[in-house]
């Protein structure tokens, strides 16, 4: 009997170990050897502009701009809302050409197809000269620009006509590689700028520093891996940003417009931007975006529903017991 | 006043039958509701929430479309379970003998049909509500209004299938052959008749097919469904019926087969 029990418990432990080995990789999102992991999960996020001081913006950031230039749509109106819907995530490997196309050429509107490619600075050239590869995660999401109207059915970035495809963000598995990316790009820009044909076309590629990249990453809707604090610290040290600092899950970046201003971004546990605050040098807030999560309402609803079910079961048993007691007392 | 009393006398037994039937099928309903929720969680929730690597349909309409595709099996099973024995079990278990002296055959069949319809529509409502709530989780508000149009078609579809099953139950000896016939009719009916028609060289729209009619529920999730091309030239296939045709066919099936079932039931001896 004992041997039988021992055997069955050994079998059960073996089964559990096998199941654990099978299931574990499904839930793990870290690349082998990576210190960071992806925390993204499905579920929409709604941004809302809760405060905007137009005068302070104009005197601090730029007299000719407003928040719409940075955050799209009606981001310059208090109460305007925007929505982000995670659609897909996956693993990827970016070549240096991929990095140039996905990041630098997009950020700085560099005319790759009309100028660089025809003059020999194509995929082959870039891949031959810069042999770096970057392991990354990619994150595709539907995005509704800030609006004061109810959200449309389909996002503003929709694969099927009309409109551009969903937004796609690449998350570097190793944030220390941002420095390599920056060095390679600046080297490429120097080579291109020294080319007489490009000079004749009266065009030059911008040379950038770490702070420019960080600012572009923020505008690009930077998504970070976990642990968030360490990932953010790694980015700023890799890009050598002296005007940025990290505290907990937030990063503060000092920028220069008409005056000095600070942009503070708090990331949620998924690594997506949650709150954005902009303050002038005196610390006066002039722009504030917060997030809400429809999934929280679903959790509440689910809790209420479960409560109701348990309540009904309780009432059912109570009534049944009472009837039983009544019958018993009647019989007596 | 007299006619009012008369109609009250006629309707009261129907309500009594509905009440009894609802009570009798209560456990089945609870089991099916739980299975529906579990099925929804397996097909519509776990694939999106269990891992950081996920692929979510681009729009809520796509999400509803994909999730409801699986629901066809649940529709068939629930209809089969609730309606297969609606008439034949009366004979098999001789229950009709005890009830019929109190209620007429017409009152009995109407009452049972309404009660079971309420239950299967209730299960459908649970599924659609779960879908709407989870779509809110994934996509935020507002919930896509077309879910209500689609649910309307689901109700019509359930009633049509319920009438067909009631009709089968009226002349078949037991629950099992009814179950087998309705399942094969919905799942394989289209696969048998459609290729035959296609080999005859006709591009006839299979509006008669219950499996084809199911697609109206799926395509009405798209707000622009009336402008979607219904016939695919490249493969010579019909994707879904028009809203008008589907409504008409489903109503004809619902009323026609129910009347046939009623006539057969009246003629059948206990």
SSE blueprint and pairings:
The complex is a heterodimer of chains A (332) and B (270).
Chain A: H1 2-27, E1 45-52, H2 54-60, H3 68-71, E2 81-95, H4 96-107, H5 112-116, H6 123-129, E3 133-147, E4 167-172, H7 178-193, H8 196-200, H9 210-219, H10 228-238, E5 244-247, E6 250-256, E7 260-267, E8 273-280, E9 285-292, H11 294-331
Antiparallel strand pairs in A: 1-2, 1-9, 2-3, 3-4, 5-6, 6-7, 7-8, 8-9
Chain B: H1 2-24, H2 26-49, H3 60-83, H4 88-92, H5 95-99, H6 105-139, H7 146-171, H8 175-187, H9 189-199, H10 210-213, H11 215-219, E1 231-232, E2 237-238, H12 243-267
Helix pairs in contact in B: 1-6, 2-3, 2-6, 3-6, 3-7, 3-8, 6-7, 7-8, 7-12
Arrangement of strands in the largest sheet of chain B: 1-2
The coarse silhouette of chain A is elongated
Assembly type of the chains comes to heterodimer
In the predicted model, the low-confidence regions of chain B spanning at least 5 consecutive residues are none
Structural class of chain A: alpha+beta
Structural class of chain B: mainly alpha
Mean pLDDT of chain A equals 86
Distance between the termini of chain B: 36 Å
**Widest β-sheet, arrangement of strands of chain A:** 4-3-2-1-9-8-7-6-5
Give the percentage of residues in beta strands of chain B. under 5%
Q: What is the share of helical residues of chain A?
A: 40-55%
Got a strand count of chain B?
2
Count of discrete structural domains of chain B: 1
Gyration radius from CA atoms of chain A, angstroms: 27 Å
Which sheet architecture does the biggest sheet of chain B show? 2 strands, antiparallel
> How does the major sheet of chain A shape up?
9 strands, antiparallel
The helix-strand sequence of chain B is HHHHHHHHHHHEEH
């Amino acid at each position: 009997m004992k041997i039988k029990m021992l055997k069955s418990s050994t079998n059960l432990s073996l089964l559990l170990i096998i199941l654990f080995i099978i299931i574990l990789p499904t839930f793990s999102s870290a690349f082998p050897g990576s210190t960071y992991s992806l925390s993204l999960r499905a579920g929409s996020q709604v941004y809302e502009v809760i405060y905007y001081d137009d005068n302070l913006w104009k005197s601090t950031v730029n007299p000719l701009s407003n928040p719409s230039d940075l955050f799209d749509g009606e981001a310059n109106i208090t109460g305007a809302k925007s929505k982000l819907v995670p659609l897909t995530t996956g693993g990827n490997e970016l070549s240096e050409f991929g990095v140039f196309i996905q990041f630098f050429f997009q950020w700085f509107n560099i005319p790759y197809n009309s100028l660089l490619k025809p003059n020999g600075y194509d995929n082959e050239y870039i891949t031959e000269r810069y042999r770096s590869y970057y392991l990354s995660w990619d994150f595709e999401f539907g995005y509704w620009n800030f609006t004061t109207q109810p959200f449309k059915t389909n996002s503003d970035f929709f694969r099927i006509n009309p409109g551009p495809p969903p937004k796609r963000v690449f998350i570097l598995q190793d944030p220390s590689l941002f420095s390599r990316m920056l060095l390679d790009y600046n080297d490429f820009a120097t080579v291109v700028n020294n080319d007489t044909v490009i000079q004749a076309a009266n065009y030059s590629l911008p040379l950038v520093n770490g702070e420019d990249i960080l600012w572009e990453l923020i505008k690009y809707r930077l998504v970070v891996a976990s642990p968030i604090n360490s990932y953010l610290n790694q980015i700023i040290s890799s890009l050598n940003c002296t005007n940025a600092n990290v505290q907990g899950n937030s990063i503060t970046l000092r920028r220069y417009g008409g005056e000095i201003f600070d942009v503070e971004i708090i990331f949620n546990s998924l690594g997506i931007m949650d709150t954005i605050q902009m303050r002038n040098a005196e610390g006066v807030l002039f722009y504030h975006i917060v997030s809400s999560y429809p999934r929280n309402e679903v959790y509440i609803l689910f809790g209420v529903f479960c409560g109701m079910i348990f309540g009904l079961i309780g009432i059912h048993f109570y009534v049944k017991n009472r009837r039983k007691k009544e019958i018993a007392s009647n019989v007596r | 006043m007299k006619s009012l009393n008369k109609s009250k006398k006629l309707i009261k037994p129907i309500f009594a039958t509905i009440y009894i039937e609802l009570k009798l099928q209560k456990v089945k309903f609870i089991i099916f509701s739980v299975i529906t929720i579990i099925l929804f969680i397996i097909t519509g929730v776990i694939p999106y929430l269990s891992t950081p690597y996920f692929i979510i349909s681009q729009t809520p309409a796509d999400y509803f479309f994909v999730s409801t595709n699986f629901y066809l099996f649940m529709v068939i099973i629930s209809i089969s379970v609730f309606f297969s024995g609606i008439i034949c079990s009366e004979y098999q278990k001789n229950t009709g003998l005890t009830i019929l002296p109190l209620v007429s055959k017409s009152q009995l069949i109407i009452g049972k049909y309404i009660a079971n319809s309420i239950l299967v529509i209730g299960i459908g409502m649970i599924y659609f509500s779960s879908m709407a709530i989870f779509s809110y989780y994934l996509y935020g508000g507002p919930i896509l209004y077309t879910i209500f149009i689609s649910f309307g078609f689901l109700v019509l579809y359930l009633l049509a299938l319920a009438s067909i099953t009631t009709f089968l139950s009226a002349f078949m000896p037991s629950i099992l052959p009814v179950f087998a016939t309705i399942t094969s009719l919905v799942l394989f009916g289209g696969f048998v008749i459609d290729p035959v028609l296609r080999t005859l060289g006709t591009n006839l729209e299979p509006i008669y097919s219950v499996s084809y009619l199911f697609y109206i529920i799926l395509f009405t999730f798209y707000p622009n469904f009336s402008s979607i091309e219904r016939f695919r030239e490249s493969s010579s296939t019909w994707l879904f019926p028009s809203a008008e045709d589907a409504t008409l066919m489903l109503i004809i099936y619902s009323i026609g087969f129910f009347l046939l079932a009623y006539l057969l039931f009246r003629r059948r001896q206990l």
